UniProtKB/TrEMBL annotation, chain A:
This is Predicted branched-chain amino acid permease (Azaleucine resistance). The chain crosses the membrane at residues 21-38, 50-69, 76-94, 139-156, 162-185. GO terms for cellular component: plasma membrane. It is a multi-pass membrane protein. It holds the Pfam family AzlC.
Automatic annotation (TrEMBL), chain B:
The keyword Transmembrane applies. Keywords: Membrane, Transmembrane, Transmembrane helix. This is Branched-chain amino acid transport protein. InterPro entries: Brnchd-chn_aa_trnsp_AzlD.
Amino acid sequence: MYMTAALRRAPSAFRLGLKDGAPFILVIIPFATLFGVVSREAGLDAFEALAFSVAVIAGAAQFTALQLLNEQAPLLIVLATALAVNLRMAMYSASLTPHLGAAPVWKRALVAYFLVDQVYACSAVRFEENPHWRLDQKLAYFFGAVLPVCPLWYVFTVVGALVGAAIPGWMALDFAVPITFLALIAPMLRTLAHLAAALTSIVLALALAFLPYNLGLLLAAVAAMMVGARVELMMRSEA
Amino acid sequence: MTPDIDIDTATIWTVILVLGAGSFVLRFSFLGMIGAKPLPEWVLRHLRYTAVAVLPGLVAPAVLWPAATGGEPDLARGLAALAVIVVGLVTRNVLAAMAAGAGVLYAVIGATAALAL
């Protein structure tokens, strides 16, 4: 077991990352196109839409910002709300630090830039499954998963901005994202602790949905992490 | 406030640049500050549940109260979500789960449209 682990090299981790990232091509394309269309409708040109996707590279925050801009919300509210939507990224950052924290600072900066939901979710699962992976294998996996996801986000933002309002509403492209996240969650529910954390997250996020600035989600997430950790301890003492 | 429909260029670029920088700071935060310093076991124990604590809460309101329908629960989206969860749990395959969700979503949208005719 240890031998085979040592024989595994970074290229195979990179290929595994590519393979795990590849399914998201199906959702990144419609979601990025939708963002391009919505930004065109809000009066952005293709270059501005592209700059938005390259600089922010976070769909939910980008949609939130555009919607508030459309509603003529004050600039500070637009920024605060969209950044609050992205606060979960700081939690992802903390979660990957035990795995990737030893990398040189420029590599950590690159990881941080590409730290999107899909890549994070794949990495969190695989890093936990493969505790013997070295740092270079973990980095190779991470960037392997980035490759099918992030470049398409830029390209199809531009496509959407150029195509304009040609996508009919019945296509329900908005639902590409919930479908992706749900598909990401199911394989994570490996233990009772994971299941308890997920249920806590759902119940509290719904119950606290009335709070402004996405605060409900953050409170739900913190509580769910505490529940997961607590259940893990309880299961361990029983075993 | 000007009554213009278009958002003015300066505002757009301010949002793009500040939101971009702010998002990077959030993503770099722990990776940048803590780096290779070892974290205590109780912190690691909580961090193991980050993904499963954030994503379900992120998606639950979008499933029950989709913005695209003005927050009204929607049969197609609800059934599609259910299909993703069931197929995801059974197969543990992200692609199969997403395909099942898209299939159910369009099947129900198509059936609803056919019934309305």
